[in-house]
Amino acid sequence: MILCNLNTRVLQDITKLEIPQDNEANYTHICSFDECYNNSIYFIGRKALKHKLDCLMSKQSIIFVEDEIKIEHHSDDSVLVYVQNVRKIMTEILIYIDSKFDQSLVNEKEYYFTEKNAKIHRTSIIEKNSILSANVYIGPYVYVGQNVIVGENTRILAGAKISRNTIIGNNCLIRENCVIGGNGFGIEKDENGNNIRIPHLGGVRIGDYVEIGALSTVCSGTIKPTCIGNYVKIDDHVHIGHNNIIEDNSIITSGAILGGSVHIGKNGWVGINSTVKESIIVGSGSLIGMATCVNKNIKNNATVFGNPSRELVDFVKIQRKLDSFLK
User: Which residues pair with 270 in a beta bridge?
Assistant: First the structure.
């Protein structure tokens, strides 16, 4: 349950929906479909049908329902609103709630402001030749190195480290304890056969509306930058190697490891705990399943699973043969 203070008029503005209820009806909670609180907002998608829908007993509430679902019985003084994509409506409302977070809970004396209204916690270190654009937020114990540019409305949360030669776009979220722009793992041998580290000075380029999860690393490119496109979402505990290119709207989920010089096309999906070998090209629209080990290029719109990775059709055939053999 989430506490809120919304009315029908505000919900109409957020969702751009016509809601057949008194414009001044107030809602004080956002709840899961298996809870029952009056004056609440609920969301029912297809997955919810597997569970008990206690929300239908709630009074003076609003229930957003996926339009493929038919609800026959509910409280008379609650309203059902059928929508094409209930998850999208839920996202829009939660984004609004998040944007109205009560900043009065924060001790303002711990922050200072730049000329461009960037808000910086006093424990953070910002190198003098870095540029913070308008309305940037820098949380506690953040380090921003030399030649860093941070775009408008970007938030960098506690403990993040942004190394030199990094450019971050507008409206990004860099979460707690990330390391962005640190040296990649490039090793060469000297004349005596000893390992020496190759400096990585190419930096990182991050587009707009990018999110990088807590405790993730994005390594600097060697000469050219590591590049992350617009609207890319990177989960917690992810490693992005040096010289990677991740194109727009791709999603990298928790625990994934991308070696150096990997190229992920637009709208890619990298599953939980997957590994992509260095210099691999993953085509646009492709899906890499959970715990997959990718050691060869993947064509556009492919779905791959397993270790080593195989396309879904081949993976299923091999699995059936193994099951038959074991029987």
Answer: 252, 288
Read off the pTM.
0.85
**pLDDT tens digits, 206-222:** 999 999 999 999 999 99
Kindly give the interhelix angle for 86-99 and 8-15, rounded to the nearest 10 degrees: 110
Query: In the beta sheet, which residues pair with residue 281?
Result: 263
| The two structure tokens encoding residue 136 | 């940037």
Domain edge (last residue) among 69, 99, 129:
99
Tokens 């993040």 locate to 160
Pick the last residue of a domain from 99, 133, 156. 99
Q: How many domains does the chain have?
A: 2
Q: What CATH number did the domain enclosing 288 receive?
A: 2.160.10.10
The domain of 130 spans 109-315
Which residues does the annotation mark as catalytic? 242
Could you tell me which residues come within 8 angstroms of residue 138 by beta carbon, excluding any fewer than 6 positions away?
118, 119, 120, 121, 124, 126, 132, 144, 156
Residue with tokens 């060697």: 222
Examine the domain organization and report whether 138 and 91 are in the same domain: no
| Distance (Å) of CA 64 to CA 4, 85, 89, 308 | 17, 9, 8, 43
**Tens-digit pLDDT profile for residues 93-103:** 999 988 877 55
Contact indicator for 218, 243 with CB cutoff of 8 Å: no
Does a structural domain hold residue 327? no
What would the pLDDT profile of 16-55 be if each residue is shown by its tens digit?
A: 998 876 657 899 999 999 999 999 999 999 888 888 898 8
Q: Measuring CA to CA, which residue among 248, 275, 245 is closest to residue 262?
A: 245
